[in-house]
Design brief:
heterodimer; A: 272 residues; alpha/beta; 2-enoyl-CoA Hydratase, Chain A, domain 1; 8-stranded mixed beta sheet; 43% helix; B: 301 residues; 7-stranded mixed beta sheet; 11 helices; 10 strands; 39% helix; binds zinc ion
Chain lengths: 272, 301
Amino acid sequence: MNDLSSWAKINIIREKDRPTIKDYIHLMFDMYYEFHGDRYFGDDLAITGGIAKLDGMPVTIISNVKGKNIEENKQSNFGMAHPEGYRKALRLAKQAEKFKRPIICFIDTPGAFCGVEAEQRGQGEAIARNIMSFFNLKTPIISVVLGEGGSGGALALGVCDRLAMLENTVYSVISPRGCATILWKDPSKEKKAADIMKITAEDLISFKIADNIIKESFGGAHKDPEKTACNLKEYLNKTISELLEKDIETLLINRYNKFRKIGEFFEDKSSL
Amino acid sequence: MLDDFFNSIKSRIDYDNKSKPVKGKKNRKMAIPPDLLFKCPRCQELTFMDEFEKNQKVCIECNYHSRLSSKERINMIIDEGTFIEYDEYLSSKNPLNFPDYDKKIEQAKLTSSENDAVKTGEGEIFSKLSVIIIMESNFMMGSMGSVVGEKISRAFENAIEKKLSVVLFSASGGARMQEGIISLMQMAKTSAAVSKHNDAGLLYISVMTDPTTGGVTASFASLGDIIIAEPKILIGFAGRRVIEGTIKQKLPDDFQTAEFMLEHGFVDMIVDRVNMKNTLYNILDLHDFSEDTDEGKLNNE
Ligand SMILES: [Zn+2]
């Protein structure tokens, strides 16, 4: 565990040479065939997906894509997917189920894209469909937050049997900037908002939402991507073999219960 | 998601404040106290409150279906005396110790006379027993936190146990920011419960009412076997202001309306409030394979 503040962590994940999925694919998998398109509308480069080998074992990878420069970010829309991106993800997830491949989802997005065409093509429906369908996939699913996990756009790749977060990552319902705007009408107070919102890996472990924290190299993943990838790969190997030992029915019941128990409430008979 | 929602609400308020001269037959002198008048946020027309209420709170000029409290909705849809409420005392904690959240909840309890932003239970629609879920937009804009997530999940689980259909009226600005990541996870929790109900072969009718946005659109509201919307209401994922900020231009008035969603294929049908109960009954009846039907009785003999 590290004791950096939420804000310090956000600065680490915003480092311009922080490794993205493209780095990790090369560092962790023996091969990767990227598959394109949702078969309805088009191909969204904000999400990549396909088949790969993890130490010889076939797996399906689905990931948000962030770029490291303007060119790359233009292509991947800064990691903000349109409905066809989520529908591609679901298509590939169902393919994985058919061929009994474990699914690894990598989350690295500020959120789903907000735009006219996204609304016309059903951004809400696409996310909802993924969330519901992932609960029924008869194959192990692991989700790993690589950078930021933003709202419904992250959850569309976030229904899983195990949720892991790299050490300095955050996962939240709204960006600290958005939260500061609502609370104090001042987006520049995002640092203060970041602390209030409880969005770090430690916070999510304490809420029993995340299951594991994966160590980054000292100072952040960008300092030594290979070391970070090595930790990540070790985690994936260990967790996939754990999950493969369970029968599918148990796996699905556990997946349901993992999310079913999230929430804090009490019976208040005094108020009404 | 929540900032989207706040922006969309703000845009409506701005819209409201853009006062337009009252015209035509409704041009009445302005000595009338404002709470005796309804000003339509869609067409800006003023109507006397009693006329508006007699019309089931539907704008007489443009057919905009304005918001109802969960109690009003129950009176309109459920046979008198048949509603049995579930989990009415479930109440939110403050899991993040979020500043002023406790105060906000207390305030919302006072203004809405509800414990949180959803009412669940079972009741009869022309004698068809169903599980009923009605979101309460008067309670923190119907935002979804732990209580909303839990009550909806329990309601679907009850429906599975009793082999009942679910009729859900959504009205929400999205996730409840004050519960942070826990509120986001309610999208997963409720969708999982919908999925189980679906696997049990049971019917789920989602009725979208004003406003259905953000995390609710991106979870259970979009997952009905049949999706109905009330006319002219707001349905969308992202807030209007956020999108306008991105594209740097004004959006057309009909963007993200029920009619827009119908045209783009995300709503099965638009139903006027006056026909809602009948429509729900007919659909429930069409899906009724329970043993107390005549056919069921025959098979049992
Ligand atoms: Zn009107």
